[in-house]
TrEMBL record:
Protein name per the record: YhfH family protein
Originating organism: Alkalibacillus silvisoli
InterPro entries: YhfH-like
Length: 42
């Protein structure tokens, strides 16, 4: 039996920062892999 799309997305693990490994608060249009604290754009 196929899983509904809603169940599929609810079961995905939380996205984690690649630097500090903390869970990230995702936004719909966010493709970054670093949290705000670790994302240092100079």
């Amino acid at each position: 039996m196929l899983m509904s799309p809603v169940q599929f997305f609810r079961n995905l693990p939380k996205k984690q920062c690649v630097v500090c490994k903390q869970d990230m608060v995702e936004q719909a249009d966010c493709y970054t892999n670093k949290c705000e604290k670790c994302n240092t754009i100079n």
